[in-house]
Amino acid sequence: MKVLVAIKRAIDPNVKVRMKADGSDVELNGVKMALNPFCEIAVEEAIRLKEKGLATEVVVVSVGTSAAQEQLRTALALGADRALLVETSAILEPLNVAKYLSKVIDQEQPQLILFGKQAIDQENNQVGQMVAQLIGSGQATYASAVNHVDGQWLVEREVDGGSQVVALSTPAVVTCDLRLNQPRYASLPNIMKAKKKPLETIAADSLGASVKQHSRLLGVVPPPVRKAGITVASVTELVDKLKTVAGVI
Fold this sequence. Notes:
27% helix, 249 residues, Rossmann fold, alpha/beta, 11 strands, nine-stranded mixed β-sheet
């Protein structure tokens, strides 16, 4: 059984994001990049499925420039078997990424396709759902547990006020949430081995996906600076401030 994991290159979550001086976009020059944390959870889950004997091969795929090879190598060091890079310098809109990935899925024929629930840069939470629609498969989002029983994928997913378990036939698309697992650290021997694992580059244009630009970034602004707090002398004054200043009661 083959598991395919889609991953994304994103700004390292420990880095403070800065805007460009003209406000046109986020500053990426000289910024440390990393494997999107939710994608890392998806990679970990695929590796665990292989360790349980439920998967025979774990393939990771990313869409982007050649710089994404760094994150693919990270996934290989964590335990993936091989990697695919759909290389393009175009702006990565969710629908276009989903179309590229659906073409790769048609070629690879995996039984399970894993995504992080969203990327921490744009927070779109769209690609997994779009891929499921394009390939005509069942999907489960916000997964907190994934099991394979009687030829079906049983996915426990988080919903308001509790959890829900859905059964999916193969192939299935699952997006992974924080509570699914705790990703491992890549050991030095595995990092060295990852350099020799296969990483194939595919020209995006060769996939035959019909893509176009659907949106245009007009600009970005930093969040407003939080105002300094004040000290009150009594509960009465606190209640008065909550009513007249904060407007919360």
